[in-house]
Amino acid sequence: MSMSFEQYMSDMVQPMRNELTSIGCVELRTAEEVEEKLPAAKGTALVVVNSVCGCAAGQCRPGVRKALEHEVTPDHLFTVFAGQDKEATAKAREYFAPFPPSSPSIALMKDGELVHFIERHSVEDRSAEDIAADLKAAFDRFCR
């Protein structure tokens, strides 16, 4: 019995997707979904660029989960998956200028405008608790 590469990758990344969808993040899997949801998201929106790397597993996703336990949170939660949903990720990154493509990364938007961004280099050398604290401070500033 053989399995296609696409099916193998889908099976491998599903638990990584579930880490974010289980806490309320809506997956945007196509460029059209990104274009439909991000500009229309009134108020604040958190967009997590998910990834298969170790810093996504050890710091980014756990940091987001901890941050969302805060009393102040964004109105909308979204995620795109770098390397998997390539067109959706590319479209989402258009909203993150002037920052270069980075995964994992976390964007906080307010009424369609980027107001806070955590790049990969600010994920990989920090703990989940540090990332959560950074996000909570941004939530307090922009989501009230």
From TrEMBL:
Q: Which Gene3D superfamilies match?
A: 6.10.250.2150, Glutaredoxin
UniProt-listed InterPro entries: BrxB/BrxA
Q: What range does the record give for the signal peptide?
A: none
Tell me where on the tree of life, at the top rank, the source sits: Bacteria
What protein family does this chain belong to?
Belongs to the bacilliredoxin family.
What name does UniProt use for this protein? BrxA/BrxB family bacilliredoxin
